[in-house]
Design goal:
The chain has 336 residues and is of the alpha/beta class. The protein has ten helices and 16 strands. The structure holds zinc ion (2 copies).
């Protein structure tokens, strides 16, 4: 099969490699769409993920959808030909974390595209059958890939437990911030204020009804806005401190973005005097079926997601576009 493999920072090569075989309990998926995440871009530019360096030219991409084309031993469903979306946090089901239901923080978690496991920027990938969810015909493959970031947002909103009438602020209207807005809207929560410095990225939140919509968090402070919940989705290193300043006493700060660099500082007196709760979220758990359902019923309109389309041969261009963070695109989507 053809695969896009990262040999060194900013060096992806399209290569012919053996097609994987589905092991027992796995299905083989013909990949039809892969959306590129900011975390993919970081591995692409840094050559490592959180200090873990791939031990081989790695295939990136963990937000994907495709067709089931073969079943491993012991698998009887879904049948060959089924269109599926995939949850990429592959948990063991046996460890203490899995037993407690925290499958996203499984001690033996396998995450395709995170070294050493290959991801989906290829024609085929073998996946645990427990990680796939059938996609209705009305949901496109690209939407099927976007179900993954939608799941990250669902997980964060579930953990935040928003109550009726609570004031919410989202920092960052990239894919995750916008998905968080979409989930809040689908759940009937009060529409959030959004902080996003890139002008083009404020357009869709504006159409969705987010208000106020500002370029800098200071504008919200100046307007006297205090949030019950702040979702930090920007990944900006300064954002935790900003989120704390925006939170009201006894408020919650949800750290969804991955700060860069990861060492973060904040004013402890703000956090302490306001008795803030800060929750760090990790990917998603048990969100796939709900995310597909939200997309299939139209409660979340993933078809409106601003994407740019790329072939597998253009995988490097898709990565570079992700890093450039243009205003008119929230996800680069590769169609292998
Ligand atoms: Zn992702
Ligand atoms: Zn486990």
């Amino acid at each position: 099969m053809k695969a896009a493999r990262l040999h060194a920072p900013r060096d992806i090569r399209i290569e012919e490699i053996p097609t994987p075989r589905p092991a027992a309990g796995e299905v083989l998926v013909r990949v039809r769409a892969v959306s590129i995440c900011a975390s993919d871009w970081r591995l692409y530019t840094d050559g490592h993920s959180g200090g873990v360096v791939p031990d081989h030219p790695i295939i990136q991409g963990h937000e994907f959808a495709g067709d089931v084309v073969a079943l491993g031993e012991g698998v009887t469903a879904p049948s060959v030909g089924t269109r599926v979306a995939v949850e990429p946090s592959w948990h063991c089901g046996r460890c203490d974390q899995c037993q407690r239901g925290y499958t996203n923080i499984c001690r033996n978690v396998v995450f395709p595209s995170f070294p050493p496991r290959d991801g989906a920027l290829a024609e085929y990938i073998a996946c645990p059958v427990t990680s796939v969810c059938p996609l209705p015909e009305t949901v496109s493959y690209a939407e099927g890939a976007l179900v993954e970031p939608l799941g990250v947002a669902i997980h964060a909103v579930r953990l935040a437990r928003p109550q009726a009438g609570e004031r919410i602020v989202i920092l960052g209207a990239g894919a995750i911030g916008t998905c968080t807005l979409l989930v809040l809207k689908a759940y009937g929560c009060s529409l959030p204020a959004v902080v996003e410095p890139v002008a083009g990225r404020r357009e869709w939140p504006a159409r969705l009804g987010a208000a106020p919509l500002v370029a800098d968090y200071q504008e919200l402070l100046n307007a006297g806005i205090e949030a019950d919940i702040v979702f930090e989705c920007s990944g900006d290193n300064a954002a935790l401190a900003q989120a704390m300043r925006l939170a009201r006493p006894a408020g919650r700060v949800m750290m969804v973005g991955i700060p860069q660099p990861e060492q973060v500082s904040f004013d402890a007196s703000v956090a302490r005097r306001r008795e803030l709760t800060v929750v760090f979220t990790r990917r998603s758990r048990d969100t796939l079926t709900e995310a597909v359902g939200l997309a299939a019923t139209g409660r979340v309109d993933l078809a409106a997601f601003p994407i740019r389309r790329y072939s597998l041969a253009q995988a490097m261009a898709a990565m570079e576009a992700t890093g450039a963070r243009p205003g008119d695109m929230l996800r680069a989507v590769v169609f292998p």
